[in-house]
Amino acid sequence: MDTVAWFLLWVVAIGITGWAFRFAGQKIQWPSDRLNMYFRDMPLMVGIGFMFGLVLLYVVFHYYFIDQSTFFRWAVQGFVIFTVASWLFLTLGKYVGTQATRKIFRQMPLTAAFGILTIIIYAILSIFAGVIAPYGQEEIFEKINVLPGGDPSLGGDPRFPLGTDQLGRDLLSRLIYGGQNTVGIAFITTILAFLIGSSFGFLAATLGGWFDQAVSRIVDALMAIPQLIFALLLLTIATAWAGSNKELITIYMIVIIAVLDSTRVFRLARAVGFNIVVMDYIEAAKLRGENLSYLIFREILPNAYAPLLAEFGLRFCFVFLTIAALSFLGIGIQPPLADWGTMVRDLAQFINFAQFSPHTAALPLMAAGAIALLTVAVNFVVDWMLHKSSGLKD
Amino acid sequence: MNADQLLVKIEGIVIQGRSDEQWLPIINSVDLHLHRGEVLGLIGESGAGKSTLGLAAMGFARDGCRIASGTVEFDGIDLIAADAKVRRSLLGSRIAYVAQSAAASFNPAHKIINQHTEAPVQHGLSSRSESEKDAIELYRRLRLPNPDEIGFRYPHQVSGGQLQRAMTAMAMSCRPDLIIFDEPTTALDVTTQIEVLAAIRDIVKQFNTAAIYITHDLAVVAQMADRIKVLLKGDEVEESDTDSMLKDPREDYTKSLWAVRSFTREEKALASEEDMPVVRVRNVTAAYGKIPVLYDVSFDIHASRTVAVVGESGSGKSTVARCITGLLKPSEGAIEFNGIPLPADYRQRNVEQLKQAQMIYQMADTALNPRKRIREIIGRPVEFYLGLRGRKKDERVSELLDQIELDPNKFIDRLPSELSGGQKQRIGIARALAADPKFIICDEVTSALDQLVAEGILKLLARLQDSLGLAYMFITHDLATVRAISDEVVVMKNGRVVEAGGKTEMFTPPHHEYTSLLLSSVPEMDPNWLTELLQQRGVDNIGDAAIDRMDRT
Predict the structure, then answer these.
(1) Is A58 part of any domain?
(2) How many folded domains does chain A comprise?
(3) How far apart, in whole angstroms, are the C-alpha atoms of residue B325 and residue B343?
């Protein structure tokens, strides 16, 4: 009851101050006309929004400087560092490069710059994992459960800046190798899903009739089964087939996830394709006597790039999360290969120490954070692409 | 109320649009004055800024545009400085807007009358039931069929011309002082257009409403407007009374606009009976699924001649073209090419047969692949049909671009989006020519273009016909185009050929009833044309009403 009362009090207080803010703004004669107009036409909700922002700012200040909450401080520091880095990246792009790339950077929002920068960093770390990582992913040291931070008084070791896991493997190296495995496999899987999904989708759109019906109904049937459960079922069967051959399990996993995800791609490609095949230029190409592959790859595909590319980004995230989830459940990427899903699972119990020792609780959060950061980054880039492609249409 | 009172005063208005990171001018310092009860016609090509200026009279700029300077006063109220509340109380009640496409502007999910009553109820001018009564009265005055009942239909249950009139009624619902008509008849057939024109003119006079009438059709504006203002690329060219403007245009640009309709070609002598026609349509009957569209259609097209197929939308003109190209299988009859019957399905025709008949589309926007460069769009048929590759292909593409009067060095690497409407249509022509055909179907190729540009396309087609001996089948609903380019005319109605013959013969009476309706519906430059026509034919014997009457007898 008390919380509800407090909540209501806050709402009313913010509402009143918001109104007062707008009222004051309208009464004061500002030196610039723009500002006068702005206050005159300001809706009440905008005034309230300003006050709410002020309250939020105070809360941030409180937790950062007075409460000194460790995780909150990390989050704010990370946010600031990434913002500054992406701003620098964006500014760099505006002045370096060819005319065309500079123009792209000028029109790019900061979020997209952040996304691209993050993806580039991930790509470099994954591709050159063997060179960058200080130790091997399977290398076991005598020190176990070293805490991150490298401060010996807190139980750290400067040799392992992010600490080691229960078996004594360096977490930094495993994170970097994990990127190679998880991201690499997700990338291959997504490409495969797109190859299957979009070729069937465009074929269905171009041919129509019974082919479209048959493929669409099969896809409907596949989509009717919950994806993760279906993947689990198929992977269990595949594991039995593969026996102890770990590479074969990975290949089966790639194929299974690709086929399941291609159903979603098929739906999109078919819908986009149907919008394109009714265009006059497709009719002109048909009347010219062009064959199916020319129609699909030279006439339809170039016009479907924008939605497909956007879907690629989203699909990549889903595939990536599916693999992480399967690894977390123990049937995805097999140990001793490093992978972020498995790392989260192995270190999960340390989250219980959050209240007493934030550094201990940070162990599982690093892999989870790596997953989250990439997902956010990819989505920022996808949003930007969608915005660009929808802008091109009018 | 003083009739000479100034209602709208726009002075020195500059409107800019955001494009490619900079503000470009759309309107450069134009003045516009409008008195109560006066109709001002705004004309110009597309991109001249007509619509932008029309919207500015409401104090409004589209997304991505801004009013950079100048003043807009409506009845003494400064619309640019006015705040949102004042503007909201004006728009819809004292200023109304009628858009080009009524079909796209009505909400398909609500009945017409419910959309009609929205504005008066919102502005507190009348109750719902009063407004409904008023709507029915307005429908009656606009001569909509079944005025008591038509408002209770959904927009898709009403024809385009009727919808446009319903939209005019909606604009009238609050008895505004000013209505802005933005090309209200451009998307309509001639026979439908005339009904809408008569209705709009009538109702504007009855209620003494001031109007800004935006169009690119001079003959239409001559009927509607008291004064005409000509715009070119955001600048005012000239403004004067309709009469003096038509009789004595001062500026060269205005004169060139006036001269457009004068392009005509001599009719060639009728082909002799023994000559083998290039294309012969023989007793074609066709249907979409179970719905019959064509009944026993026959006509011939000879080399170097143009056959115009005329008729309103839905008359089956384009379906004939689909039968000829093989996209639609006729249920009876056949298409012969040089005396040899063609397979009914285009998939069974060989490359040589496909090559002979080419097509130019109405909407160049959808007819050219937006992701391909001109080099590939024209180069592909050259490669596909003639087997030319590499240097030879490029040479042929350059040659074709020369033929359509576009500079190859400048245009060969452009995308369709980097071309103007007329240039796109020229590329469409070049793509058809690339196959080296004997016969080209032109499906409403000029109807989406401005008059000056359309004239250029017609001249180009005529020149190509003379030099290459092409046969054209020209599908159109615009009789001015027919008069300009055709040798023979085929008039179609409800899937049947109503009348066919040489051009001169067709344009001299006696006509079939439907042909005469079509001919009389084409607006002329005489400002009294509509008045005289209405006196001659009677208000209920034009447009759809006249067609209904014909169908009944």
Answers:
(1) yes
(2) 3
(3) 10
Question: In angstroms, what separates the C-alpha of B493 from chain A's closest C-alpha?
Answer: 25
Is the domain of A84 the same as that of A187?
no
Helix (H, G, I), strand (E, B) or coil at B190: helix
Same domain, yes or no, for A341 and A290? yes
- For A303-356, write each residue's pLDDT tens digit: 888 888 888 888 888 888 888 888 888 787 877 788 888 888 888 888 888 777
Kindly state the tokens that stand for B142.
Answer: 């606009």
Q: Which of A49, A66, A83 is the last residue in one of the domains?
A: A66
Q: Which of B248, B449, B472 is nearest to B360 (CA)?
A: B472
List the structure tokens of A346.
């192995």
- Residues in chain B closer than 8 A to A288 (CB atoms): 354, 380-381, 384-385, 435
B79 token code pair: 């619309």
- Number of CB atoms found within 10 A of residue B502's CB: 15
Beta strands at B210-215 and B39-43: parallel, antiparallel or unpaired: parallel
Residues A61 and A85 reside in one and the same domain? no
Strand, helix or coil for residue A136: coil
- Structural domain that includes position B287: 279-508
Q: Is residue A213 part of a domain?
A: yes
Say if residue A28 is in the same domain as residue A80.
Answer: no
Q: Is B400 a member of any domain?
A: yes
The tokens describing B504, both together, are: 């001169």
Non-local (6+) Cβ contacts of A227 within 8 A are: A260, A261, A322
pLDDT category at A392 given cuts 50, 70, 90 is very low
- Of residues B326, B369, B380, nearest to A303 (C-beta): B369
pLDDT at A393: 39
Give the lowest-confidence range in A269-273, B187-191, B318-322, B413-417.
B187-191
Residue B295 region by backbone torsions, left for phi larger than 0, else alpha for psi between -120 and 50, else beta = beta
* Global confidence as pTM: 0.76
Highest mean pLDDT among B57-66, B143-152, B378-387: B378-387
How many helices and strands (H and E) does chain B possess?
24, 20
Which residues of chain B lie closer than 8 angstroms to A296, CB-CB?
none
In a domain, B214, yes or no: yes
pLDDT digits (tens, 9 = 90+) for B113-148: 999 898 888 888 888 899 999 999 888 888 888 888
Residue A362 lies in a domain: yes
Q: Considering its fold, how many domains does chain B have in total?
A: 2
Min distance A391 CA to chain B CA atoms (Å): 12
Which candidate from A281, A287, A305 shows the least CB-CB separation from B369? A281
Instruction: Tell me whether residue B45 is exposed, middle or buried, using C-beta atoms within 10 angstroms of its C-beta: 0 to 12, 13 to 18, 19 or more.
Output: buried
A146: in domain? no
Q: Give the torsion through C-alpha atoms of B506, B511, B514, B518, to 10 deg.
A: 50
Q: Same structural domain for residues B324 and B357?
A: yes
Radius of gyration of chain A (CA): 26
| Chain B residue nearest residue A305, CA to CA | B371
Residue B206 has, within 13 A of its CA and on its CB side, a CA count of: 12
Domain that holds residue A84: 69-108
Alpha helices in B235-295 (DSSP H): 242-247, 252-259
Q: Is residue B452 part of a domain?
A: yes
Answer yes or no: do A284 and B367 touch at CB < 8 A. Answer: yes
CATH code of the domain covering residue A196: 1.10.3720.10
